Amino acid sequence: MSQPELYSNGVKMDLSPNKFGELRESNDILHDGAALRERMTQDGYLFFRELVDPNVVLTARREILLKYATVGEIDAINHDVMEAIQSEHTFVDKVNLRAFTESVRTGLAYENVVLSEAVIGYLERLLGSEVRPYDFRWPRFVRPGEGCGFHADGPYMNRGTDKVFTTWIPLGRVRREEGALIVLENSHANERLLNTYAKQDADKEKISWLSTNPLILQEQLGGRWLSTDFNPGDVLSFGMHTIHGALDNRSPIGRCRLTSDTRYQRADEPLDERWNGANPEAHGYDKVFFPGLGSWNNIEFHDEWKPVDEWGRLVIPT
Ligand SMILES: O=C(O)CCC(=O)C(=O)O
């Protein structure tokens, strides 16, 4: 089968074997805490096939996609809602996005995935302690044509401890050309980044993406970009220093990508207050997490956090 061309941030990926590879699967060590820690230290990520029951994941997919259909983001008239085909008639700029995003983030079926025994059990073994999931969560809807810049999570999550772990969970099948996550091999151990970028605070220092060019970044840091075709139930987990981003969603049939990224740490370590508590501050109370819409050709909308008015509606600068 021929490999589709892959792009990230509009740049064509180099798919030669020394530049691009498959994520290593770690199902063989899932129940061995010491082995999980050793491999996380060595690779900067752990990847499991079908860690979560696929039916639990697909129930969450349906819960969230019905909400996106309600605001006209996906076409549930001409297609099965589970196909997540982008609608031409979004009215997302007319609704209370603050309420909408909270409803997506706190849905019961979604929580059943990110707080599942399978996910928490894995993290308990990895951390060797009780686990504290972050209160804020990042279910992510990525339209065709959209993607994500390269970064590590540390600068966004490091106010309490840098021993925080992300899980990236596809809520349905995500083929690589539909916007799969990519991690840069060995980037978590790059001394220069550990001494500079990793210590920054994204909000205080107002930093943006480390890079939006996968080839230049790879040239600078070395390593292969790693990814795979993801299936429901798969979980990719990584630490705060692993450089990652996404392949652009170039679905030939207009399928939107639905995934989740959530964070967890030891319960006995201090928390980053941006993401925890009854009303997390996130990146400011006047913004909501709503990635994408760059095609609206509005520079503000290249940010994943969008300004909203007092009614929670998108503020579209003129
Ligand atoms: O899903 C994506 O496109 C980006 C996710 C991400 O940046 C993260 O999990 O930290």
Give a verbal description of the structure:
The chain has helices at 33-43, 54-70, 97-105, 108-114, 117-127, 154-157, 191-195, 214-221; strands at 7-8, 11-12, 20-22, 45-48, 131-133, 138-142, 148-151, 164-170, 181-184, 225-227, 235-238, 244-246, 257-266, 287-289, 305-307. With 318 residues, the chain is α+β, with helices and mostly antiparallel strands. The protein has one domain: Jelly Rolls. It is built from 8 helices and 15 strands. The protein is 23% helix and 19% strand. The structure holds 2-oxoglutaric acid. 2-oxoglutaric acid binds at residues 140, 148, 153, 166, 168, 181, 244, 246, 259, 261.
Count up the helices.
Answer: 8
Q: Count up the domains.
A: 1
Considering DSSP H and I runs of 4 or more, what fraction of the residues is helical?
Answer: 10-25%
Compressed to H and E, one letter per element, the order equals EEEHEHHHHEEEHEEHHEEEEEE
Structural class: alpha+beta
Q: Which residues form runs of ≥5 with pLDDT under 50?
A: 297-301
CATH class: Mainly Beta
How far apart are the first and last residues' alpha carbons, in Å? 47 Å
